[in-house]
Design goal:
This protein is an alpha/beta fold and 128 residues long. The chain has six helices and eight strands, in the order E-H-E-E-H-E-E-H-H-E-H-E-H-E. Strands 1, 2, 3, 5, 6 and 7 form a six-stranded mixed β-sheet that branches. The longest helix has 12 residues, at 89-100.
Length: 128
Amino acid sequence: MSSANPLQMQDILDISKTGSLKGKKMVIMDVRGKDEFKNGHVKNAYNVPVQELSEALKLPEDQFEAQYKFKLPRKDSDTGIAVHCMSGRRAAAAANQLADAQYKNVYLYGPGWNELSTSFAAAPQLEK
C-alpha cells in the first residue's frame, strides 16, 4: 500500500485546470503505458510509464525534461506530484518509487483512468 496522500476525482480535475490544489502547485504524472496515454489522458498530465520511472528518476534534470516534456519538481520542493494510472496498481507502485527516492509531496489518485474516462463531469478535462 502506498503512503501517498489520496486524491479524489475532483482533485485531479482541479489540478488539470489550474496546476494547483488548495493553493499548492501540482503536476500530474500519468504512469500508464505510452499507447494508453496516447489513447486518452487528463489535460496537462505528463506521461512517465511506471516501468521507466526508476531509471527516469536517475536522469539529470535537463535529460528528464527533454524526454518527458516537463520539469520534475525537486525532492524537497513544495510542488506536489499527483500520480495516476488505469486503476491504481501502477500508480501506487510509482508513488512508492517516488517516496523511496525521497520525494516528499506525492499524491495518489487511485481510481485513475477507469473512473475519469467514464465520468461525464470529467469529459471537459480529457484529451485524446
